[in-house]
Fold these 4 entries.
Entry 1:
Amino acid sequence: MLGKTVLITGASSGIGLTCARYFAKKKAKLLLCARRLEKIIELKEELERSFGVEVHSFRLDVSDKNEVLRAFESLPSEWKEIDVLINNAGKALGLETVQEGSWDNWDSMIDTNFKGLLYVTRQVLPGMVQRKRGYVVNVASIAGHEVYPKGNVYCATKHAVVALSKAMRFDVLGTGVRVTSICPGIVETEFSQVRFKGDKQKAKSIYEGTRPLLAEDIAEAIGYCVMCPPHVNISEMIIMPTDQASMMSIYREK
């Protein structure tokens, strides 16, 4: 990965942050963006200090189409050629039935998890196709294959990401560009805290008595896919903890 430019959305925490550290160790150039600018500035300084890599960080709310357009138009010329795009930004909000659901939560999940991924990819993919090389990693979820009670709209957005990833592989066929969807089971990050509006105790209960995946596990899986030889494309990777057999089947110690 020496000298390759890797763009990571949602890089301020969780899987995105861990991917940034992983690819910094591989000596990639890193483009990091997230809504929390102060967090990615801190991360930029950490990576430059610890690994001696080049990092460019910028604030980006992927759900805002105009902000995405402005952000990519204003990238310095030396950062416009992106080799790897990791579409990681995403969220789950609430746990309600459709008949009780929050319109604001629905809009936020759809705008971030699906439309935001589209907006960013639309800005990056043409350059990859023109250069006949590049890698797009879409971070989906086991929720892109299964549904669970009261997970309706979140699951729908992740099903959409899996479907879009398949469609993208048709669109780039013959160009040398590769596309992977990564579908983890439960991963212990800030994800549940966001879902439950900062309720740390409720978020912690999701992982009690079981051994979830760690963000590092997902970063290593993404790294494996990206560093396969150019003729190899890992179309999809489903990654589950040993203690999880399906969305609703999780072993917990009593």
Note: The chain has a mean pLDDT of 95.
Entry 2:
Amino acid sequence: MENQHIEAVIFDLGGVLIDFDHTIAAKKISSFSNKSFLEIFNLFFDSPLTGLFEEGRILPLDFFLEVKKLLNLNLKYEDFLPIWNEIFFLTEKNKQVYHLAKQLKNNYKIGLISNINILHFDYLKKNFSIFDIFDSIITSFEVGVRKPNPLIYQKALRALETKPQRIFYTDDRQELIQEAKKLGFKSFCFKGIDKLKEDFLSVGIKV
């Protein structure tokens, strides 16, 4: 059966292998801006500017200068960096996913696809030991597009050197797995460790 021939398992990063909270940064930034908390949060979490940054289309310093202008920010770049970066934390759920992925590495290629900017990615690499399990890491800032653009999934497909039907993919955002499904990936919305194990078993992955 085809379900027994999964060759690669791809994970999302944020919300799956590590958690984050943009309100942490927004609250800190509010002390240096005359903008409302909601305005700051919306700019940080999901805006055209952060989209450009996640696609690697603007450099970190230029991103900061735009943020400074938009938020009337009274802050230096070197002081902005820790505020921008220190929003990540590991939960028990994240740790369980990591250990599960580490077990799977014995029998499957392990991949990562993440919408992420270079500052966050570099910070995570320096501060969290979660990247050693991956055979392939695909980031939006390196590829130049974000999920759900099909190009980022195709990049992962080429990197893992397998067929889409032989890839298991999990992401915590439903809208981001739909494009992967169209390409043939066996895609599942991440809803916790128990559901993940069920999804693995449904395609013949024994854990």
Note: The longest strand covers residues 109-114.
Entry 3:
Amino acid sequence: MNENRKKIFLIDDTEFSLVRTKQFLKDYYTVYTLDSASKMFELLQNVTPDLILLDIEMPGMDGYLALEKLKTDERYTEIPVIFLSGKYDEESIIKGLGLGAVDHIIKPYTPKDLLASISANLTPVIDNENFIMDRDTNVSKKISILAIDDSPSMLRSIHFALHNKYKVHLLQKPENLNKVLKGGIKPDLFLLDYNMPETNGFEVVKIIREIPEYEKAPIILLTSESSTDHLNEAINLGINEYIVKPFKPNILREKISKCLATRLDITN
């Protein structure tokens, strides 16, 4: 076995999928095939993979439960997990990304798509500045959104829900906000997490509102807090809308459209 190769765990309860997918990968990676999530956790005691390919619908422990268990163990939290699944509805994909998966590939998939996702996700999701700028040159995507959240998985979920319609910039460290805004991007709307370790969402709202250019920019707060006092405080600080996590993609898009329409009414 080539020790210099990246190691991949492939977990699927269907033998055909295991054999077929390993054929795609064996020339590039060292692949361990397993037919259940429980066997994956057994192997993890002896082998640490560089990436995990995980089916969702499996007997016993399904892919969602397996991912949740992985993310509660600090030994495995940084291992990228890609779901390989026949589930193609948006809610299922968002659920997996929200739990921490780095991608969701729909079966049947091509070798090209699978290899591209693996290659991309064996590198960090967030760059050294903890910021990713959407460089899509599609002229129909004129509206720019800056999403700020300390969770890479939540940023992936937001990007997945919105990238077809908007330019979606991602910032993991809110303390870098001023630097990012001075770097050339001009958001039309801000999406903010509330619970962040260094600078919480309320503090970020204050920072945004102190910048003349963004004094009236739409701000949507994403929060797991739903108490009336918490939401009243957020509104008093100047947010335009809030969404209680976990969010539904269609609700997020509706709130964004509403905020942007209101802004256009004000500026016209």
Note: The chain has a mean pLDDT of 87.
Entry 4:
Amino acid sequence: MRILITFAVEAEFAPWRRMHEFRKEELLSGGHAQGASAVYRTQVGNVYLDVGFTGIGWSGVNQGLDHLLSKKPDVWISSGLAGALRDSLQLGDVVAPLAVLSRTGAEPPTNRFEVDKELRQLAVNTGAKAAECLLTTCRVLTLAVEKRAQGSAAELVDMESFDAIREARKRGSRGVIIRAISDSADEDLPIDFNDTLSRSRQVSLPRVLLRLAKNPLAMPRLIRFGKQSRKAAQSLALFLDSYVLQIAQLPSSYGREKVAV
């Protein structure tokens, strides 16, 4: 069985990477290192694990993902960190939502996909907290009031999972979402991360420093948020380690779905 796990950025993957001998592959664009896209691969028992990165927010299938998708994964896990939209989810919770909604603007979310129910139930049985729905937005929700306003639609929020599940369905892979909570519903983020993203959809350190220069009082909260995020990523790594082993025990007949858009 082949499993593809996608994260937004490598920092979310770092704790799990340290637990296994993942082999890093640099994919060069046009033969030049400037266009390199990194992916990671390893094998656990009879399961091949491929790890790729979407960047923060979905901007299409990049070179690394295209390479991994050419291997035709049986399972696609959209993973990483997420924000809570309700008090029912606490910092560090590992969550498995049943469905994902997309909101691209001010209008109510209309697009909705369900994840693979068997994989989601297996995640809950493995110790993930069950949630009905995750909301994927096109921007980081930085204020508690913004998060509260979306709480009627979903229990948690990210910027990638809707598109990952849609792509998984299109490719015939069984899709599931596993996310760890890095910020609570009543918590303002320390800075507006929407202003810190680079063209490659990564957090730009120079842009973070610029924001801190304008508001140095945000530094303690940024340090606290960093600690919360690392702790959540560590909880996620421990869960994924157990979860992948549970998937490996599924019958060999459990495989790819028929392609559905």
Note: Confidence is low (pLDDT under 50) at residues 30-36.
